[in-house]
C-alpha cells in the first residue's frame, strides 16, 4: 500500500528547512570575529558544510529526481524509507558535528549517509521507465558509476 507521508512538497520543505539551518550556521560563522563564544569554529564549519551540501542540496536534488523521473501519483514506500533514513543521518550529523567535529559519532552518521545515498541511487536506477533506460546517457551510467569507486 502506498502512502503520502512525504507528498505535497514535504520533502522540498524539509530541504528548505536545511537551507535555513545552513544559513543560520553561516551567520554564526560570520559572527565569530565580533562575538566572543565558547563554540569551536572548526566544528561549526563542519556542521555548516554538511548541512548545506547534504541536507539542503542533496535532499533537494534527490526530491527533484524522484518527482521528475519516478513518482507516479502516490509516494513509493521504499522512497519513504530511504528519505527518513537519510533524515536520521542528517539529524545525527546536526547534533554531533557542533560538539565533537570529525569524531566517532559524526563519522558514523556520515558513513550511514553514504549508505543512504547508494540506496537511493540503486532505487533510482531500478525504477526508471524502460524508455529512459534506452537513452544513450542512461546506458552509459553504469560506466560512470563504476569509475566512482
From TrEMBL:
Q: Is the keyword Transmembrane helix in the record?
A: yes
Which key words are in the record? Membrane, Transmembrane, Transmembrane helix
Q: What's the protein name?
A: Uncharacterized protein
Q: List the lineage, top down.
A: Bacteria, Pseudomonadati, Bacteroidota, Flavobacteriia, Flavobacteriales
* Ranges that cross the membrane: 12-32, 44-66, 78-97, 103-125
Amino acid at each position: 500500500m502506498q502512502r503520502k507521508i512525504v507528498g505535497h512538497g514535504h520533502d522540498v520543505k524539509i530541504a528548505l528547512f536545511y537551507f535555513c539551518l545552513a544559513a543560520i550556521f553561516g551567520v554564526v560563522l560570520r559572527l565569530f570575529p565580533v562575538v566572543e563564544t565558547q563554540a569551536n569554529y572548526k566544528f561549526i564549519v563542519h556542521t555548516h558544510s554538511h548541512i548545506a551540501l547534504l541536507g539542503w542540496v542533496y535532499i533537494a536534488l534527490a526530491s527533484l529526481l524522484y518527482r521528475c523521473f519516478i513518482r507516479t501519483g502516490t509516494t513509493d514506500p521504499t522512497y519513504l524509507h530511504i528519505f527518513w533514513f537519510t533524515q536520521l543521518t542528517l539529524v545525527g550529523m546536526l547534533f554531533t558535528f557542533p560538539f565533537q567535529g570529525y569524531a566517532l559519532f559524526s563519522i558514523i552518521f556520515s558513513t550511514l549517509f553514504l549508505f543512504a545515498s547508494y540506496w537511493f541511487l540503486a532505487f533510482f536506477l531500478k525504477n526508471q521507465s524502460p524508455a529512459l533506460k534506452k537513452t544513450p546517457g542512461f546506458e552509459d551510467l553504469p560506466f560512470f558509476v563504476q569509475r566512482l569507486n
